[in-house]
Design brief:
296 residues, mainly alpha, two-stranded antiparallel ribbon, membrane, cell membrane
Length: 296
């Protein structure tokens, strides 16, 4: 009996020592336990988002590849005569890189614009806001998953186009393919995240896709060089960040671009696009941190 009493007293003493209010081993109330980056949480969010679109990969990866390939077929048949040369290559080879990166950007936007919006509509947004993830980690996980989908779509589209007659996907500057492809995917992932925060129903996100993303993509030099446009329309095209993504990505394959007459102009565009994405990241982070349309 004395031993049992002693054991109970020892357990009580241990509880007192571990009680935060008594200065035990637990962290004080309000003090974060996870310091630095929550790597496990960030990785878990990333894997969750990747698995979400891979469960329906026929719709999210392979269907965009088929749709983009149909664009190539239609435009090469309608406009791509065998003697039609643009930037020193046939029309099919000219238009292929633009279609690849256009598909990457559109699907990056589609992925990130769904994440938070679906949670708000289904009432499961708390599952993303309550875990011990910082706003930067939440944004990073969603954007990284969107970029992953964009890369998968780009590889699928490129694989399909590699077998299309008359198309050459030999890369003159691999660094430009990687840089402009990733920067374009990140830019659209961030814009998709803002749309996901702002939208209250799927119609809102669809409106942004149809009236903003699609026109900016199609009117950015995907199927033509802007030197064929009137001066005023050339100025409008150069104000479109999509133009620099598509032209820079095409430069990586062809070694030629309508951004400027020298490779230096392409390099400056690469730097400018990186700075633009940094600014956009800070803006999206500020919106996400404010809790606008996420917390009530």
């Amino acid at each position: 009996m004395p031993d049992q009493v002693h054991s109970i007293e020892s357990d009580a003493s241990a509880l007192v020592e571990n009680d935060p209010s008594e200065g035990g081993h637990f962290s004080p109330r309000g003090k974060p336990v996870i310091l630095g980056i929550n790597g496990i949480g960030l990785w878990s969010l990333y894997i969750k988002e990747v698995r979400r679109f891979l469960k329906v990969q026929t719709q999210t990866v392979w269907a965009p590849a088929v749709t983009t390939l149909l664009f190539l077929v239609i435009f090469t048949v309608a406009m791509g005569r065998s003697d039609r040369m643009i930037l020193g290559v046939n029309f099919a080879t000219f238009v292929a890189p633009g279609l690849i990166v256009m598909g990457m950007m559109q699907n990056s936007f589609a992925n990130s614009s769904f994440s938070l919006l679906a949670g708000k509509i289904q009432g499961t947004i708390i599952d993303l806001l309550m875990p011990p993830l910082s706003y930067g980690e939440l944004m990073g996980g969603i954007v990284a998953a969107a970029v992953t989908r964009a890369v998968m779509v780009g590889l699928a589209v490129g694989l399909a186009m590699a077998f299309y007659p008359g198309v050459s996907l030999a890369m003159a500057h691999p660094w430009a393919v990687i840089w402009f492809g990733l920067m374009g995917a990140v830019m659209l992932a961030l814009l998709g995240l803002v749309t996901s925060i702002w939208a209250e129903k799927f119609d809102h996100a669809a409106a942004v896709t149809n009236f903003v993303i699609a026109p900016l993509s199609l009117l950015s030099g995907t199927f033509y060089v802007i030197s064929n446009l009137a001066p005023h329309f050339q100025m409008i095209s150069r104000a479109n960040p999509f133009f620099y993504v598509i032209s820079g990505f095409r430069f990586g394959f062809l070694g030629e671009s309508d951004i400027g007459n020298t490779n230096t102009a392409v390099f400056h565009s690469a730097i400018g696009l990186g700075i633009f994405n940094v600014v956009l990241t800070l803006v999206v982070y500020a919106i996400l941190r404010s809790g606008w349309k996420l917390k009530s």
